[in-house]
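Sequence in, structure out.
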Amino acid sequence: MSSDSFKWPNGQQGAVSLRFDDGMDSHIQKAAPLLERHGLRGTFYICPAGTDEQWQARAEEWKPVLQAGHEIGNHTISHPIPAALADQSWPGRYENLTLEQYAADVLAAHERLESAFGRREWTFCYPCYQTWVGQGRRCCSVVPFIAEHFLAAAAGGEISKPFNDPRSCDRHMLLSLRADNLPLADLIRRIEQAVLMGRWAILTFHGVEEGHLPVSVQLLDELATYLVTNRERIWVAPVAEVAKHIRKTGRDHQ
């Protein structure tokens, strides 16, 4: 990279964020404690659903995760999904939503999160990686709305090189690697590819030995060991922290 190129902190060559979607029990009970044992911090995108009483009880379970230095982010309340993935019982489908309905859901989640955890610069995660609502002539992007309200937002990514170039990435449509079904060797190979290019890799996980798309504790532990072993080259930080660094450098045009 040239002498006037973007610089990662402390001479590191690239960045990695570990992203966990859907606010699952295994994130609180397994993922967060595992990362803490390795001295790492992750980003947990949660859906603050339920009655006020149910959400308040759930928020109390998440507070120790936040206090340990992890990031908590907004994943909507209702978690809409594409019609192709929905069964008849699922209430929210992207194709049936208007931008106004989507915005109301996101802002309601934002209000609950701030009430529970305090004001801060939040990041967002698009449920099912999808960045649009409606269909046909009614189809429209939700990215401009999200950009008005959030520091950054994570989506999906092109399979071969799902990495973010800090000099030009869209902070509100960040690429991420769908890590759920990849073996450790593939994850390491992708990370090394990102670091070689000086880029930011966001690895997306869902359940840890739980739910759909689960990963094993062993895989997560071995991945964390690899990241810690290579910490002189690889900066591992929550999504918000990396996004703030990119913004601070002046390379950000948003």
